């Protein structure tokens, strides 16, 4: 018989759980069906308007906040289109969960105010252009988001590619 307890304490159990990075993105179209994407100078590929979920907010609140911070646009997020899961990698030591929300359609001439030092450019891209510009991981989320827009069914996808 041993004096060591067989069960972990609650704190030990919580400390043993995997942490997950969480982020939200916005799928925004113009009336012609082009998609609003943004470019950070420190990343190879373009990205969705969006970012990491802050403490105390949920993924939908994150999408709304990031839209305002990255574009100056105020709009309520619509349906959750896709949830992307990426496994840990050399780039990120924890899994990541990406939420993609439908932000609907806005006119292409809507003023976009990029935050200095964070984003370098924005553009309206056709879905075909965006699939290339977003890179492998984000393009999978885009394809899932567009499919979800078409049939109203949220997609869940897993990819080994980070693209955070």
TrEMBL record:
The keyword NAD is annotated on this UniProt entry: no
Listed cofactors: Mg(2+)
Keywords of the record: Hydrolase, Magnesium
GO MF entries: hydrolase activity
Annotated PH domain residues: 1-22
Residue span, Nudix hydrolase domain: 19-148
Source domain of life: Bacteria
Similarity annotation: Belongs to the Nudix hydrolase family.
The name this protein goes by in its record: NUDIX hydrolase
Organism: Kitasatospora cystarginea
């Amino acid at each position: 018989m041993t004096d060591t307890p067989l069960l972990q304490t609650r704190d030990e159990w919580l400390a043993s759980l995997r942490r997950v990075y969480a982020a939200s993105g916005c799928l925004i179209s113009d009336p012609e069906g082009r998609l609003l994407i943004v470019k950070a100078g420190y990343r190879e590929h373009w990205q969705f308007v969006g970012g990491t979920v802050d403490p105390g907010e949920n993924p939908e609140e994150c999408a709304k906040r990031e839209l305002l911070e990255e574009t100056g646009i105020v709009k309520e997020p619509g349906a959750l289109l896709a949830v992307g899961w990426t496994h840990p990698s050399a780039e990120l030591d924890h899994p990541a969960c990406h939420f993609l929300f439908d932000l609907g359609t806005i006119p292409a001439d809507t003023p976009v105010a990029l935050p200095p030092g964070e984003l370098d450019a924005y553009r309206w891209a056709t879905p075909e252009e965006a699939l290339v510009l977003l890179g492998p991981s984000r393009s999978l989320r885009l394809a899932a988001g567009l499919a979800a827009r078409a049939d109203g069914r949220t997609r869940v996808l897993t990819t080994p590619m980070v693209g955070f």
